[in-house]
């Protein structure tokens, strides 16, 4: 008798003996038996679901393009995905930046650093052509639209050019990159991962320019997700909360730049607006920003985990809202979750009382 036949016989005999042993118990204790079977069935279903959700994509021969890799989320994600086996093309605005140099020293050999300005058609096309030439048989598994800029300021103090500049990077840069890469992504039945933030779901005082672009990316992503479903392409939004300090957008090193932006707003502001809000309004707003920066999360890890899941998991959600902050709760994310349940007046009061810099009216 062959070994396989012998083992098969042993398994059959064991199952037969177990059935004989437990049959009287199930007959005598029907309710108990049904309860045990129900629990076993639920456990089996949960196990199957967990397996399906946790199934990871094989990184071999998978190319991921990430924008905004000079620092922050993009830099950390490029290193993470390279370490787990993906081929990563890291787009950096400045190839000579410290962050770009660190990526170039990656020991895996799977990380390619390119100069990439997502506001420039030629730069974007050059990046796409590089992927076609370097990986002709691989296509593009995932595009991570991460590059972004932030500038604060109330509507009356924010120049129209600032709205245009932020939208050109955060919104139109995302659209430009996505349109250029879609043929390669569709070929692989791959993914588009767009990084927005809580500001894509809730607009706070002094954040209108940033929120306008984030809301636009949310709308773009929703439409694209529906359109791409027929091609097997997934579109995922990752929405970080208060991670501004950890990304470098609002940490101690960034404060001089933020200070100069507020000084420029004050210099260019109409005298009538300064009289209405108070001459020290923008100075006080800068001080508020410095205080808020202290509440930011100290690590990027939760966002990088969410981004990695969006790239690597077999089954993914449409949105990942990631809590930040080093406080008890990430308050904007708390408001997002409760917005549909709260009366508008209560919701508005929570926003105003926690985030509005009050004007000191000196003229009416």
From TrEMBL:
The record's annotation in Pfam families points to: adh_short
Name the InterPro entries on file. Answer: NAD(P)-bd_dom_sf, SDR_fam
Q: Reply yes or no: does the keyword Ubl conjugation apply.
A: no
Q: Which UniProt keywords apply?
A: Membrane, Transmembrane, Transmembrane helix
> Transmembrane residues, as ranges?
7-26, 32-53
A GO molecular function assigned to this protein is: oxidoreductase activity
Q: Which domain of life is it from?
A: Eukaryota
| Biological process according to GO | steroid metabolic process
Q: Does the keyword Hydrolase apply?
A: no
Family of the protein in this entry:
Belongs to the short-chain dehydrogenases/reductases (SDR) family.
The record, for PANTHER family, names: D-BETA-HYDROXYBUTYRATE DEHYDROGENASE, MITOCHONDRIAL (PTHR43313:SF36), SHORT-CHAIN DEHYDROGENASE/REDUCTASE FAMILY 9C (PTHR43313)
Q: What is this protein called?
A: Uncharacterized protein
To which species is this protein native? Littorina saxatilis
Organism lineage: Eukaryota, Metazoa, Spiralia, Lophotrochozoa, Mollusca
